[in-house]
Amino acid sequence: MSTNLRNVTLICAVPILLGVALATGLAWSGTPDSTAAVAAAASGPVQKWAKVSVELPASHAAFPPGNGADIANGQCLICHSAGMVLRQPPLTLDEWTGEINKMRNSFGAPLPADQVGVLARYLVGINGRQQSPKGPAAVDGQGS
Ligand code: HEC
What we know:
Largest sheet: none
Order of helices and strands: HHHHHH
Radius of gyration: 36 Å
CATH class of the largest domain: Mainly Alpha
Structural class: mainly alpha
Bound molecules: heme C
CATH architecture of the largest domain: Orthogonal Bundle
Distance between the termini: 97 Å
CATH topology of the largest domain: Cytochrome Bc1 Complex, Chain D, domain 2
Number of domains: 2
Shape: elongated
CATH superfamily of the largest domain: Cytochrome c-like domain
């Protein structure tokens, strides 16, 4: 009987002792001392970074020569590359005019209104198509 009682005491004592040990450990890890130790370890040795070299894709640096190229180079490279304009599907005069006015009215391009016509004719010359006999297509040239 007394052996059984000792066994029961042992079986109950083990989880209680484990719980006390765990609680003490948690309380210990939250003390200001340990926080300071972590901070000291983080600001210890200087982190060395590996050198990385990145090859960016080639881009048209400027618009091709022509009447209006100076306007395009001066006004359209403020926000994006020439490639953004040159890689579009070919547009008609009306569509380029709409595209330029979208840049002015929606995106805030500071192009003066009296230069829109010259620029639109220049863009048709380098990346244009004839007006469809069926009528105007969508402004971005898709679906036509
Ligand atoms: C104030 C900034 C700004 C200026 C200046 C500007 N653009 Fe844009 N352009 C944008 C933004 C923003 C987009 C959209 C980019 C995107 O969709 O990721 C864009 C996109 C474009 C596109 C792609 C088609 C589209 O509609 O999204 C074309 C073509 C274009 N611009 C033409 C021009 C031309 C021509 C000029 C010169 C008059 C010009 N942009 C000047 C801001 C500008």
